[in-house]
Amino acid sequence: MSFEPLLLLIAAVFMLAGFVKGVIGLGLPTVSMGLLAVAMPPGQALAIVILPAVVTNIWQTFAGPHLRDIIRRLWPLMAGTIVGIRLNAGALSGPTARYGSIALGVLLVIYAIVGLSRFAFEVTRRDEKWVGGLVGIVTGLIAAATGVQVLPSMPFMQAIGMEKDELVQALGVFFTVATLALAFNLTAAGLLKASTALPGAIAMACAFAGMFIGQAIRLRLPADAFRRWFLVAMIVLGVYLAASAILELQRA
């Protein structure tokens, strides 16, 4: 794809991803990685996602009064995620990188099915530290290979009983830490470079525009219905990504 059509694609993808984040409070990396991976390798897609993801998550991190309690409760999850990302460093640029689209497709399907089923479990305060560390390591391993950080971190944060406003802020804190760790991986692998600055800036501007539109529309739309159709679309996209990548590997 030539440069100008690529920038138009990036603008459209991040407008949609920002809109989704504005309506349901999360999903910017998930949606943008899923859509961009149709047109480029996951490593290149993640290099573009990094800047808008970091900036929007920093904004979300400080948009609430729960930061101290969140850090106190989630530091094992965040530390484990950093460890997992470092353990799987190079997954997006090494010999297994061609399987990234398959892994991303499968992850999108799992993410959507978990969301549609509203699967939930409970972790007690006594156990949340050690469970959080293990969940963080698994999340980091997955994130390093796919760029998506929602599983199993998101179900864990719900399982420890965080309330709505605290959960939204906690997602901002966690995703900020995880995305910065991924940025370190990308820089070390040579994937994050000056050529990604313009696409990243366009992505960030469009993501914020989409977020503001989504936040305005959230008050008028039934959020549950939107969330349900969004997750169904993620299943379709995930199946398409995985199937396309498998067919391409078979032809190679």
Structural write-up:
The protein has one domain (3-251). 77% of the residues lie in helices and 0% in strands. The protein has helices at 3-24, 28-36, 42-61, 67-87, 100-117, 128-146, 153-159, 164-189, 197-218, 223-251. Helix 2 packs antiparallel against helix 3 (42-61).
Shape: globular
Poorly predicted ranges: none
Structure summary, number of beta strands: 0
Total count of domains: 1
Would you spell out the secondary-structure blueprint of this structure?
Elements: H1 3-24, H2 28-36, H3 42-61, H4 67-87, H5 100-117, H6 128-146, H7 153-159, H8 164-189, H9 197-218, H10 223-251
Helix pairs in contact: 1-2, 1-9, 2-3, 3-8, 3-9, 4-6, 4-8, 5-10
What features would you highlight for this structure?
77% helix; 10 helices; mainly alpha; single chain
Brief rundown of the structure:
With 252 residues, the protein is mainly α. The chain has helices at residues 3-24, 28-36, 42-61, 67-87, 100-117, 128-146, 153-159, 164-189, 197-218, 223-251.
